[in-house]
Amino acid sequence: MKASKTLPLRSINEEYRLKRVVFLLQHRFVLVDHPKPVTKPAAAGGTEEEMYTFSIEYLPSPDTVEGGATVGTAPIKQRITFATKSLLDKEEWMLILIYLQSYHMFEEYLSLKGLTDTAEAIHFPQDHRGYEYWQPDSDQVIELEENSESSSSESHVIRRATLNKLIERMTHYSGNIDSRLMKVFLMTFRSFCTPLHLLTKLISRFNFPEYTYVDFQTDDSMMSVAQAQLRKREFEDKYCRKVRLRVLKVMTTWIENYFHDFGKCPELVNGLRDFLNGPSVDKLYDIKKFQVPNLLKQLDRRSRGEGRRELVQSIEDYPEVLWHTARDKREFNIMTLHPLELARQITLYMFSLYMRIEPWELVTGTG
């Protein structure tokens, strides 16, 4: 929602009339109270007017704590009741509140379909604080194919690149996600990186340093603290959040299509589960509520073996064994068994070996 929207909402007590103005700015719900004292006779003799009310419950943000410090105890859920003069105003605000609560569920889908807004200018922090995914493109970190573009995105085909640069490109915040790059990477990364190392890299891409507004202040002495704080909020909303969604998308694709990495490595499953249930995700309310539950369900379902396609036949589907000249079934050899039956058994054995080949082994030539 680009523009801020304001609407006066009133709450009345015995001594004063409170005019509450609500701002919608970058998907943030901001309340500003303007108390206006009234005389007691006016309050007592006021006329009754029909009001339309609705309530919301919320958890206070750590930013609202005095001094900017967080309190060790968990925040207590609070309730605010609003009143509007008309039913139309109430319906409009209910629509806005529902949008604020649910737009995160559809944002990733719209991003994949290329239906979101084009990338806007983002002010990055002056000091990267050791974040390793902001290395400028150069011949030392990435080489692109000349006059070639990926069929699924506007980016050029990558000939070679460092692991950090590949992860950065795969989880870039702007444009459509490069599905071709993600599929090729997940198919081939085992030739130069272990699954545990990849998980560590994805988590480090997800976790940004704790920046403050000071990191967004330029050398311009005229820049106010409010401007720096606005830049910080825009950076967190337009860059950090989109990158985190892309990282979760890569993890989801990894689980759905290449779960054999997790099946062979319990440490990988535990590491991913600890990350999704850890403090890095816990402090991100919208991601924890809308994205993480589905990812955990998928991880648990695949860990239990659900969703794995296997060839199952009933006993009636098997043809009768052709014993040929073998009179005693406990004493048969290659000469007494029927040639057709021998071909069947060799085929079944070769098929069992073929079933053990993982898709990535056909690319890397290992296994």
TrEMBL record:
Keyword Zinc: no
Highest taxon in the source lineage: Eukaryota
Sequence ranges assigned to domain N-terminal Ras-GEF in this UniProt record: 154-300
A single GO BP: Ras protein signal transduction
GO cellular component annotations of the record: plasma membrane
Keywords: Guanine-nucleotide releasing factor
GO terms for MF: guanyl-nucleotide exchange factor activity
A Pfam family of this chain: RasGEF_N
Record's protein name: N-terminal Ras-GEF domain-containing protein
